[in-house]
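Hi R.,

Here's the chain you asked about this morning:
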Amino acid sequence: MRPCFHFAPSANWMNDPNGLCQVDGVYHLYYQYNPHGPIWGDIHWGHAVSRDLVRWEERPVALHPAAERGEIHCFSGACCKDAAGRPHFFYTSVGRQEDGRGCVDGAEQWFAEAKDASMDQLIRREGALTERSHGDMKVREWRDPYVLPWRGQYLMVLGGCVEGRGSVLLYTSPDMRSWTYHSILWQGEQADDIPYECPNLFPLDGKMVLMYSPCAPVEAVVGVLDERLRFQAEGREVLDPGGRNGFYAPQVFRDEAGRTILMGWMPETDGEEAARRRGQSGQMSLPRLLSLREGRVHAEPLPEVWAALKPTTGPVGRHFAVKLDVRRDALPLSLTILASGDGREKTVLTLTEAGRLTLGLGQSSLSGAPDKSPIARDVSLARENELFLAVDGTSVECAVNGQWLSGRAYPTQADAGGLAVEGAGLLQARMGVARE
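And the predicted structure, written out as tokens:
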């Protein structure tokens, strides 16, 4: 089922958001894309544009692998603007492993710029950052550059694995072309050979936030970056427990209004066979507006999301969003969504008095293909709490006081949909449904 207010390409495979930026009022979303089928492979950069981060126009593929240069995949990367506001793009170039250019060993970091103002085509520039920058240090699965301006220079973070430990590596440059390896900025404690993917490093309300995807739920670390570019952590949290069951590989960018915005990939969880039947796999999360509150990353839906919906007090189907004002002394609260008329299919979201938020997927589908494992997290509660829920076809995104949980549900019955609330905690509901 196609989403109405989340981006998904019209066909084929998509994953990580790449190169997020806003230029001359237009938002640009690039993303990992296989133009030849609905499963992973032959990775290009797809492209879509929007004026409001909700309504998207799909554009031509922006970046194709350069076969003549031994490239077979254009892996994830980011965009950074220079002092004049001109966007520059960075991505991981991958060739064949047997040629020493695979994603495990031999990847390179390449640079590109937009061919013209449409930004529909990205043109590679000469020069590349290679493993030689590390000297004798060996980095496996080295990928996903993210670049930011910092105190008169530019910083780049890359993910990988060093001596079996997931790592985020730091590089510096005066001009975004000549890069020097600086240090391991952050590293896991366990030598489990699991790389850290898609790192982001960005300022937020006077602190620095390091975000990364450790092949598990996305983590965020809040701290400071000192004069010697050492990251001093002050707090660490799971950003969204969905992981590869609902939310992975997010990217952060700052728009022209100065807002810090995050978007992530919402993977499918119903398998390759279902993707082949559907002809498409993957979508983007809603854009989330970031801030810091009490030392934690707080995220809320953009006002544009509500502007894209129409208010309703009547029944809803499979495409709606709702905000509930909930008193703590009225918990527990249970919301039943995507339920069939005969009750055989239903997805249940619960919030307990102790702050346990759970997306129950055990009865979400009569099909045996989808992953029906519950997704849960603990949230901080106050006397008055705001719960946000967005259901868009098969995607479910929920936030309590700015702490998010995302997942996928695949009801098979045509009448499955709607929302039913159990519990006395509902003080006020603001609801919107997707416009026709």
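The first strand starts at residue 12 and ends at 23.

Let me know if you need anything else.
M.
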